[in-house]
Amino acid sequence: MTRSFLFVFFFVCVQAVSGQFLRDQIINLENKDKDLLSWGYYLGFNQYDFKFNYEESQTDDILVNKSIGFNVGLVGEVRLNDYFDIRFEPGLYYTQRDLMFPGFVEQRDMLREVKSTYIHFPLLLKISTKRINNFKPFIVGGLSTSVNLSSNEDNPDDNRSGNFRMKESTYYYELGFGIDFYLYYFKFTPSIRGVFALNDELVPDADPNSAWTSGITKMATRGVFINFTFE
């Protein structure tokens, strides 16, 4: 699925870049980047994963089956100069990960469907190159936090009752790149970012010897976002 993400992203970029070179080079939105503040929205896809750290006694890893989720959100950008911008991109992210725990025979004990709805708040520094005709590559990085509306953190029932629990708040660092394309009426930006959680998100079961959580020392989200922004 990650390969499919990359293929879609590069296909969009190649088609857009080819279009810029094949047509007459009329400069679109010549003063677009001179505004102090700019606004937009984005739509996109995500693929979340978990990275597990285990106790030495745990011999079998937990398997994570990933799926494609979707993103939607807003963009606010503050111009610092010709090459640096600060971006705030709050959004709603939906995803699902299926966890397969080793050591069980029955599927009701082995499988945990982890459906997550995140309200995501990234604050990013965008570093751009000089504009080339009607496109401009950039890299982006920063910090973010999210609220997981489906975390089950306060649920008193744990895995023994079929409930996998996560912490409600997560903190990340993010790195990515993209290309701004200046079209006739608006700026279109495909971008790809990796997100990496900094804190442990697991809420352990009440039983310290739980077959589901006792062997885990840390569980942290990592993921890939592909967003298509319109400004």
Task: Write up what this structure looks like.
Helices cover 11% and strands 52% of the residues. By secondary structure, it is mostly beta strands. It has a single domain (2-230), classed as Beta Barrel (Porin), CATH 2.40.160.20. Strands 1, 2, 3, 4, 5, 6, 7, 8, 9 and 10 form a ten-stranded antiparallel beta sheet that branches. Strand 8 (169-182) and strand 9 form a beta hairpin. The longest helix is centred in the first third of the chain and has 21 residues, at 2-22. It starts with a helix and ends with a strand. The model has no long low-confidence stretch (mean pLDDT 89).
What is the structure about, briefly put?
11% of the residues lie in helices and 52% in strands. The protein is mainly beta and 231 residues long.
